[in-house]
Design a protein that fits this description.
Elements: H1 34-39, H2 41-45, E1 55-56, H3 61-75, E2 79-80, E3 83-84, H4 89-105, H5 114-126, H6 157-172, H7 174-177, H8 181-192, H9 207-219, H10 224-240, H11 277-284, H12 287-295, H13 303-320, H14 341-356, H15 364-385, H16 403-422, E4 430-431, E5 436-440, E6 445-449, E7 453-458, E8 476-477, E9 495-499, E10 505-508, E11 519-523, E12 532-534, E13 538-546, E14 549-557, E15 562-569, E16 575-580, E17 588-593, E18 598-600, E19 605-606, E20 610-616, E21 621-628, E22 634-638, E23 652-657, E24 661-668, H17 672-682
Antiparallel strand pairs: 1-4, 2-3, 5-6, 5-12, 6-7, 7-8, 9-10, 9-16, 11-13, 13-14, 14-15, 15-24, 16-23, 17-18, 17-20, 19-22, 20-21, 21-24, 22-23
């Protein structure tokens, strides 16, 4: 092999075409244990699935590229001075991936930008972003990349990974693009084989970054046998640490019901270890490089550990995703991550992986359905924004609510669309999932998603975020529009509020617990974890005791509506209200009487002649039907001040009960016509 040019390391011998090299499938002895065996019990004792939903038509390759093209039109304005602006390395790497993928398949739409792709390869391989010296901080290293094309910014696992993964696509399209394949291969392989990345290196429990680096290096000609061996070692270590701490860790990678621990080196009660929808999905994204490596000849993960990953991936799908293609999002990292668009882009990797890695994930057709809906959701946001959507969804605050984050989010979603096409999702079947749930007994969290709505009950918050309690934390409709709030506190929340005559709140059901679980699953019956999957009957009950007042809440979740019963004891002489929030400055609350006449709820209204209410939020809404407890009850609306986790609340409907019990049903209904039809079924 000829000597490498200055500044480059010699490469392993490789072929010059995009063909997978053979990888030796070496056997190994599994260090079996009772622990790992016990993790298989849920699979063997699971209750049967609900009746399968009909197979639906998913996006094909043409539809994927149409999505990529529409996003490209929004991103074109960011191309200035030979790069996408702001000139961040990860942004430009994701754009490179899309352009290279388009060239690779011969796409001819706006996402095909060969000249830009060549410029980006030059930036990332020869420009200042290719680090000559390590950056300061724990993750400084060479070889590797910096976060800014000009050479500044952070060094981080995600920076190297996104660049190397994108460059591997450019390498595959090297002949079409006319770029230096040897240069690309040098940069990827030298980085992946450096001390920062080689086994046994690991940051926290985030094996996904390492797996992608190893696979990217293997794609461009690295020693696949060695790289695949390292990938499997990372997977085995993660799984062996699923229920027992890894070496040097204090807690396991997963909780008792497979919820994710972000900081395995810290105690369980740390707020970051409550859960993290975004990082659980980011790590579960390891399924994508696993599938690519298997196609390239890597031996499979052993069956015992594979079963653990399948259980975890099921919990990831049911506990963190909605039918609308958005995260059912609660995170111990709070406003540092909550509703960040750029984390949605990273999280989509889990659905992509579930759709292409059947060895490690059940129901790939469900995953494809959710991923397709996720692309469509971002498409709607782009259309609504008239360009790149805001950095954070639903107006919530974040540490990264800036242009760089917004553009990176769009670039990541677009690159995921391109990868979906190249990984063959366009020809895979899609199936709308049945109603799904996931329950974590130790922290009292219940996630629920159906084709009609999604919500969650979040009993324990460990002060990681402001909201929580035994009531619905939020209510979205089937298109992920806000029907009734995103995560407020009373009065911008569902539930019971008990007031003194003066109006002072002395008890409320939507108040979070810190350490113990306030929520019991009544149906389905608990078996072995993960407590997740399809449901036909789902009921939970919670209880709050404050100032001598006991509030018991029982939720029943059906496919198209939610029924809640509240019982209040010890509140004699107090004002008991059940509150129903709205969303948006233009939100309204209407009451419909037995004749069908609709009126705005302005003052105090008797419920004697009222059949139902329609709460119309900014882009959606929901119906409220009081099933019992309406005798001598009254209704009014309350103006609500903005909160950090409810930045755009509308008026709240307050139903004042005369007795100690009330039962209500709610169901999303975006328009008045839909509300009338839905209410007729709920009354």
């Amino acid at each position: 092999m000829p000597a490498a040019p200055a500044g480059r390391v010699p490469l392993h011998a490789r072929g010059g075409t995009d063909r997978p090299c053979a990888s030796t499938r070496r056997g190994f002895v599994l260090g079996g244990s009772a622990l790992l065996a016990s993790l298989l019990l849920p699979t063997m004792s699971r209750t049967p699935k609900a009746d399968a939903a009909p197979v639906t038509t998913g996006l094909d390759d043409a539809a994927y590229w149409a999505h990529a093209d529409r996003l490209q039109l929004a991103l074109d304005a960011k191309w200035r001075n030979g790069a996408y602006q702001p000139a961040m390395s990860m942004l430009n790497a994701n754009m490179l991936l899309t352009h290279a993928a388009a060239a690779l398949v011969g796409h001819t739409g706006p996402a095909r930008q060969d000249e830009r792709a060549r410029a980006l390869v030059e930036h990332l391989c020869n420009g200042p972003s290719w680090a000559r010296q390590p950056a300061s901080g724990k993750q400084g290293h060479v070889p590797g990349w910096r976060g800014e094309l000009a050479g500044g910014g952070i060094q981080h696992l995600v920076v190297d990974t996104e660049i190397a993964w994108a460059l591997s696509y450019a390498w595959r399209a090297r002949d079409v693009l006319g770029v230096d394949g040897d240069l690309i291969a040098n940069r990827i392989i030298s980085t992946a084989t450096g001390d920062f990345w080689r086994w046994p290196a690991l940051r926290l429990n985030q094996i996904n970054w390492y797996a992608r680096m190893y696979v990217a290096a293997g794609v461009v000609g690295g020693d696949r046998e060695d790289l695949h061996d390292q990938l499997l070692k990372q997977l085995r270590r993660f799984v062996d640490g699923a229920k027992k701490p890894m070496s040097g860790a204090k807690i396991a990678n997963l909780g008792p019901s497979y919820r994710f621990h972000y900081l395995p080196g810290w105690p369980e009660h740390h707020k970051y270890n409550l859960d993290s929808a975004e990082y659980a999905n980011i790590v579960c994204g390891v399924l994508v490089p696993y599938a690519v490596a298997r196609e390239a000849g890597m031996q499979p993960l052993d069956s015992t550990r594979s079963a653990v990953i399948r259980n975890w991936s099921e919990r990831v799908m049911c506990g963190y995703w909605t039918h609308a293609g958005y995260l059912n999002w609660d995170t111990g990292l709070g406003f540092k991550r909550w509703h960040q668009g750029k984390k949605l882009g990273l999280s989509q990797a889990a659905l992509l992986g579930m759709a292409v890695a059947p060895e490690l994930a059940r129901n790939g057709n469900w995953a494809k359905h959710m991923l397709d809906r996720s692309f469509e959701l971002f498409d709607r946001w782009t259309e609504r924004a008239g360009g790149v959507p805001p950095a954070n969804a639903f107006g919530v605050p974040s540490i990264d609510g800036n242009e760089s984050s917004a553009v990176l989010a769009a670039a990541r979603v677009q690159s995921n669309v391109a990868q979906a096409a190249l990984l063959g999702l366009g020809s895979k079947p899609s199936e709308e999932p049945p109603p799904l749930y996931a329950y974590d007994p130790d922290v009292g969290r219940l996630a629920v998603t159906t084709p009609h709505y999604n919500t969650a009950v979040v009993g324990v918050n460990r002060q990681a975020f402001p909201y929580g309690g035994i009531e619905l934390a939020r209510l979205f409709d089937g298109r992920q529009e806000v029907a009734g709030g995103v995560g407020g506190r009373p009065p911008a929340a569902f539930g019971v509020v008990v007031r003194e005559a003066s109006g002072t709140i002395i008890a409320a059901s939507q108040r979070s617990y810190q350490d113990d679980s306030p929520l019991d699953l009544l149906a389905p019956k608990l078996t072995n974890p993960p407590h997740a999957g399809p449901f036909t009957s789902l009921r939970v009950r919670g209880k709050v005791e404050r100032n001598g007042i006991t509030i018991t809440t029982t939720h029943r979740f059906a496919a198209s509506y939610i029924e809640t019963a509240w019982d209040v004891d010890g509140a004699s002489g107090k004002r008991v209200e059940v509150v129903f929030p709205s969303w948006g400055s233009k939100a309204t609350v209407s009451a419909v009487d037995r004749s069908g006449a609709r009126r705005a709820v302005t003052g105090t209204l008797s419920l004697d002649d009222i059949e139902w209410f329609h709460i119309e939020s900014e882009h959606s809404g929901y119906v409220v039907v009081i099933r019992s407890g309406a005798t001598k009850a009254t209704a009014s609306t309350r103006a609500v001040a903005a909160q950090s986790s409810a930045p755009n609340p509308g008026p709240t409907l307050a139903v004042r009960a005369s007795g100690s019990s009330i039962v209500a049903r709610v169901a999303p209904a975006p328009t008045a016509a839909q509300a009338e039809s839905i209410a007729a079924r709920l009354v």
